[in-house]
Fold this protein.
Amino acid sequence: MSIEIEVLNGDASWAQVHPLFHAVWPPEVVATLPWAGITFAHADLRVLVLDEAGDVVSHVGLYRRVITWNGQKMNAAGIGGVLTRADLRNRGLATIALNAAIQTLRAEDAVNFATLFCEPDRAPFYMARGFQPFEGQVYIEQPDQGRVRFEATAPYVHDLKRSAPTRGTLDLCGLPW
């Protein structure tokens, strides 16, 4: 299988990735997940893995934001919407997309560390790729609720420009990714 990797503007590429999101997470599946009902941010950038036909087969969303860690403001990146077409899983495509996402963030040299959130069964995948558990509290914004503690999925961090914090309080200062 031949692939191509593209890093595109998040909003502009939504139409291109929407079919993959719908196939992997149709509404009836999302309704059963721990993060059902949570409003998420839109990706600033998207890493797409395309097959020979130009179809999106794997995706990673990238988010950039000023957040706070223990009250200190810092530039951080979010990684979210990591998904691969069901019939092409376990072929390394998500790893390729995730590596391209980390490489993109490092090349920008503008964010201190990356964060992502995942369900327990996905944690070994991310930990094998350099993510560490964040032991602490995470706060997010939600429409009609304001600032709330985020506990739907577990937080993980990845070193970029500096060592990622692994304890304390993170406030995403906006919607989660």
The mean pLDDT is 97.
